[in-house]
């Protein structure tokens, strides 16, 4: 059995860019990843713009995943909470490049949800996720 989740992108749906429409994951361990913002080790938000904060939030999410025994390819689902969806869309290409650099091209099922604010007022973005490990 392959370790890699199966990404499903039906031709009847619009071509996915930076996400998969569905992910079929088989494994033995489910890892639920808490929401991660751009907090540094001192509990301070790093960066004042979305790309910088996205980089740190994704790095934090992947760090938690690695310490749980997983890798980016094990991600089955990621939810992105953004305080400014228009800003997120404006930076979509750059955020996609950041994703590819840090997590590769095996995209999980994803959603971007606009929120009024996050727990830390300075936070512009938060990511949480679910991974399935063999």
Topology of this protein?
Layout: E1 6-8, E2 22-24, E3 29-36, H1 50-67, E4 75-82, H2 85-90, H3 92-103, E5 109-114, E6 125-133
Parallel strand pairs: 4-5
Antiparallel strand pairs: 1-2, 3-6, 4-6
Question: Which properties best describe this structure?
Answer:
globular, two-stranded antiparallel sheet, alpha+beta, four-stranded mixed sheet, 134 residues
Q: How far apart are the termini? A: 9 Å
The structural class is alpha+beta
Major sheet description: 4 strands, mixed
Series of secondary-structure elements, N-terminal to C-terminal: EEEHEHHEE
Number of helices: 3
Count of individual beta strands: 6
**Oligomerization state of this entry?**
single chain
Lateral arrangement of strands in the main beta sheet: 3-6-4-5
Structure description:
This protein has helices spanning about 50-65, 85-90, 90-105, and strands at about 5-10, 20-25, 30-35, 75-80, 110-115, 125-134. The protein is an alpha+beta fold and about 130 residues long. Helix 1 (about 50-65) packs parallel to helix 3 (about 90-105).
């Amino acid at each position: 059995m392959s370790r890699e989740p199966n990404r499903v992108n039906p031709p009847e749906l619009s071509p996915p860019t930076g996400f998969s429409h569905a992910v079929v994951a088989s494994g033995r361990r489910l890892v639920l990843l808490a929401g991660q913002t751009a907090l540094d080790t001192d509990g301070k938000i790093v960066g004042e713009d979305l790309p910088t904060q996205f980089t740190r939030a994704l790095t934090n999410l992947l760090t938690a995943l690695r310490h749980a025994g997983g890798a980016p390819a094990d991600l089955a689902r990621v939810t992105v909470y953004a305080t400014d969806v228009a800003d997120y869309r404006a930076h979509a290409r750059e955020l996609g490049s950041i994703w590819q650099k840090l997590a590769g091209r095996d995209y999980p099922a994803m959603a971007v949800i606009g929120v009024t604010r996050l727990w830390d007022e300075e936070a512009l973005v938060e990511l949480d996720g679910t991974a399935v490990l063999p």
